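Researcher: Please predict.
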Amino acid sequence: YYNGNPEIKQALDMIKANVFSLLEPGLFDPIVRSLLDYNDYYMLLADLKSYSDAQDRVDATYRDSRMWTNMALVNIARSGRFSSDRAILEYANDIWHIKPVQFSSTRA
């Protein structure tokens, strides 16, 4: 991805040249090494283009305040279904096939 994408190469070359850490040369060397020398374990460079494209769509949507507000309200309205208690109960029933344990909250 480094050699195949000119934008990624330029960004990493700038980081390697300490453009963003003039007062602390080498500050970001561990990041560059993890991406280039240690095989980018988390595939960050592979995902960077799609992340950047998604961020461009977010930016465009945010500039349309009516659309942004509508999307925010729809997300809020739909979030009611999500709760950790419900998710744990569904996992217990549907995946683990276990029943809740009853216990007393009083101490002896």
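Model: Helices lie at 6-16, 29-36, 44-63, 65-78, 84-96.
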